[in-house]
Amino acid sequence: MEWLKTVQWFQFFLAGFLLLIGFLLAKVASLGVEKLAAKKLNKHNAVLAKRAVYYGILLLFIITALQQLGAKLGVLLGAAGVFSVAIGFASQTSASNLISGLFVLVENTFEVGDVIKVGSTTGEVLSIDWLSVKLRTFDNLFVRIPNEAIIKSEVTNITKFPIRRIDIKFVVAYHTDLLKLEKTLMQLADEYVKSLEEPEPLFSIDKLNELGVAIQFSFWVKKENMSQANNAIIAKMVKVLPEQGIHFGWAGRDAVLTNHLPSASV
């Protein structure tokens, strides 16, 4: 690059100084934008605004520094354009993920901090980037899911709404007084402070099987109380139902009590 031979040491110093100022200014400005955006935007959009300001300011100072060094920006931009086209043809998968990322951002099905399920993977959203979505699973694993897979898969946002329903399925003996069972369960839910009055708890008879009568008892709680409420109600059922003469179903086997809601552990 012939233009470098004609650059004075003062120009190198000035270019370096501009880069340093640009870096510091971009850092301060992006943090300020993030704080302001956090008051009006969700966490994800605030992060995007921060990145846009940071890289925008930094790019301006890099261009200015190159001009101080006498670089012919037209040639550099032309070369960058040709390079970009070559990269585009060589990386069709990345282009597909980039386009899919635009749809993910526009659709706004989930945001940073939400708990989602994609296929068999469930975890907290750490970031939503142009090429992929990063998750942290509940056993503390880092999972990267390409945006194209997000678009093509069924995505469940577990924490989208403020309240959740817990479904507890179990079996009682055939001779059980079902009206008494319903009354007892409703009372348990009513006495449990984290159980919501609206929507009301639901008692339903599912089916008959070889163990007895299959029952489903459902009640609503705030999403942050899911795990605690699930465990508390089951513990009360195991203690209170036998005291009321209500026994879990059997067929020469132990009692059966299961919770079939995978997301109840969230």
List the helices and strands and how they pair.
Elements: H1 9-40, H2 43-68, H3 73-90, H4 92-107, E1 115-118, E2 121-128, E3 132-137, E4 142-146, H5 147-152, E5 155-157, E6 163-172, H6 178-191, E7 202-209, E8 212-222, H7 226-243, E9 257-258
Antiparallel strand pairs: 1-2, 1-5, 2-3, 3-4, 6-8, 6-9, 7-8
Q: In DSSP terms, counting alpha (H) and pi (I) runs of 4 or more, how many helices?
A: 7
Secondary-structure element order, N to C: HHHHEEEEHEEHEEHE
Give the termini distance in whole angstroms. 58 Å
Question: Care to count the β-strands?
Answer: 9
Major sheet: 5 strands, antiparallel
Q: Please state the structural category.
A: alpha+beta
Strands of the widest sheet, in order across it, are 4-3-2-1-5
The amount of beta strand, in percent, is: 15-25%
The residue-averaged pLDDT reads 80
As residue ranges, the low-confidence spans are: 251-256, 260-266
Radius of gyration: 29 Å
Summarize the amount of helix as a percent range. 40-55%
The dominant shape is: elongated
